[in-house]
Write a structure and sequence with these properties.
Elements (H helix, E strand, L loop, with lengths): L2 E5 L9 E5 L2 E7 L4 E5 L14 E2 L2 E3 L6 E3 L16 E2 L1 E4 L2 E4 L10
Antiparallel strand pairs: 1-10, 2-3, 3-4, 4-8, 5-6, 6-7, 9-10
């Protein structure tokens, strides 16, 4: 089930924001490609990704520099080696809806 998280107008391009959706911390990022929801916790350390910088549809962990693809959650730089969950985002007018029931990159 999708939950309304914020208005699209609340999100600035390439500026991550932290939200808690059904007890799951997510970083929402609006890019030129769309809006993405990714786990707000780096898979290498317990560090909030929402405090990192966004570039080329990737978010950087501010502590150790690992980069994660916003579309897939895959890391593209050490020290992280495991992906982080990414969640489906739906736009309904100006409403941003996120579902954390099942991650898009979760193995079935």
């Amino acid at each position: 089930m999708s939950s309304r998280v914020c208005a699209l107008s609340d999100l600035e391009i390439d500026e991550p924001k932290r939200f808690v959706v059904d007890d799951v911390a997510v970083a929402l990022v609006r890019t030129e490609e769309g809006v993405f929801a990714i786990s707000d916790t780096c898979s290498h350390a317990n560090v909030p990704l929402s405090q990192g910088e966004v570039e080329d549809c990737r978010i950087e962990c501010w502590l150790h520099g690992s980069m994660f693809d916003l579309r897939t959650g895959e890391p593209s730089g050490l020290p992280a080696t495991k992906p982080v969950p990414v969640y489906p985002v739906t736009l309904d007018g100006d409403d941003v809806l996120v579902s954390v029931d099942v991650a898009l990159n979760e193995a079935s």
